[in-house]
Design a protein that fits this description.
single chain, 217 residues, mainly alpha, Endonuclease Iii, domain 2, Endonuclease III, domain 1, 2 domains
Length: 217
């Protein structure tokens, strides 16, 4: 009896999705030629992954990385129980704004109480998973989409509220001013069910064209 074939690697899945995406929209071949090769980007699941994304809300990539680095260095801070035990005083100097601290505190409390189940979240359709996450104060659509894309590995997420993606698509298709969130949702609809791969492609395109990273993960 033959052993079952091994599951394809994340790199192989990304390559398959990219090939299918370029067939869906041949315009993206030029975008790919400028962007160059890119790899899957996988974040930590659960509280740690979501906390890192919250650290990156509305700040530069460098600032987000610095805040997360200081937070992660605090003993136990990347786990909900540890975060709660440190408290606001114990996390002073990390660089979290009051709003971000309260968001993470609330999330940690929900997880400890069993009111936020990340394993169950990963099995939901994208729209339901986004609705589940955004029901928590401080978690907007961008944060939910980034978590689902990078930490839960959902293949059909496109964070249309991301400014770097808006600018990248505007640059690629000569749209001036660049599309807003609503317009970008409509543009990206053509790329389903490979919208996460499209987002990765445009972030790399943004980095290549503007010599700066578009996301701190």
């Amino acid at each position: 009896m033959k052993s079952p074939a091994p599951a394809p690697s994340r790199e192989a899945i990304l390559a398959q999705h990219l090939a299918s995406l370029l067939q869906l929209d041949p315009r993206l071949s030029k975008v790919h030629s400028i962007a160059g090769a890119f790899q899957p980007r996988i974040g930590m699941p659960g509280f740690a992954g979501l906390a890192r994304i919250v650290c990156g809300q509305q700040v530069s990539v460098a600032s987000a990385n610095a805040i997360w680095g200081r937070l992660e260095a605090q003993p136990g801070a990347s786990k909900p129980e540890g975060f709660l035990s440190l408290g606001e005083e114990g996390l002073r100097g990390v660089g979290l704004s009051r709003g971000k601290y309260l968001t993470l505190k609330t999330l940690a409390e929900k997880i400890v109480a069993g009111d936020l189940d990340f394993d169950a979240l990963e099995g939901l359709p994208a729209d339901e998973a986004i609705a589940e996450l955004t029901a928590h104060k401080g978690i907007g659509p961008w944060t939910a989409e980034i978590y689902l894309m990078f930490c839960a590995g959902h293949p059909d997420i496109f964070p249309a509220g991301d400014l770097a993606l808006q600018k990248a698509v505007g640059d690629a298709f000569n749209i001036d001013p660049h599309p807003d969130r609503r317009a970008l949702i409509a543009i990206a609809a053509k790329w389903a069910p490979y919208r996460a791969t499209a987002a990765l492609l445009f972030w790399r395109f943004y980095a290549a064209r503007r010599s700066r990273e578009g996301l701190a993960l």
